[in-house]
Amino acid sequence: MSPKNFIDKGKYAIEIFYSAIFICVIGIYLGYYMNKYYPPFDPEKQKIQIWIEIILQVSLLACFTYFIREILNWGLPDLVHGNPIKYAIIIMAPIMFTQQNELILKMKHILN
Questions:
Q1: What's the number of domains the chain is made of?
Q2: Which domain holds residue 99?
Q3: How many Cα neighbours within 13 Å face the side chain of 76?
């Protein structure tokens, strides 16, 4: 590998690192606020109601992930080896899920 390629790959790795940190912070806050404003888990609700809440919440999660990726793709220039957002965005959905305790409780209730 030539020194130029090594430096380019190092720059790309740094861009992935910075993008991942930025996306991580966004994911934490979005997950927190989604958990805060969605209805809390209520075991007295019918299962169909809980299913609908889960589907809506996961759909919103997917939309947020998509739009944030598009915004970051629009805002960041293309690099020598590609766009680091496609790798960094992978961490966003799990981070947003971990912040949503109510969604996790709903899923556990449905599975039991």
A1: 1
A2: 3-111
A3: 21
Residue 94 φ/ψ, nearest 5 degrees: -60, -35
Q: Is the dihedral of CA 101, 23, 70, 33 positive or negative?
A: positive
Express each pLDDT in 64-80 by its tens digit.
888 887 777 776 665 54
Give residue 36's identity as a one-letter amino acid code.
Answer: K
pLDDT of residue 55: 94
Residues of the chain with confidence (pLDDT) below 50: 80
Q: Give CA torsion, residues 90, 91, 96, 99, to 10 deg.
A: 160
Closest CA to 95 of 34, 40, 53, 37: 34
CB 69 within 8 A of CB 89: yes
pTM of the model: 0.73
In the three-class reduction of DSSP (H, G, I as helix; E, B as strand; rest coil), residue 82 is classed as: strand
Give the separation between CA 111 and CA 88, rounded to whole angstroms.
Answer: 30
* Distance from the Cα of residue 86 to its chain's centroid: 12
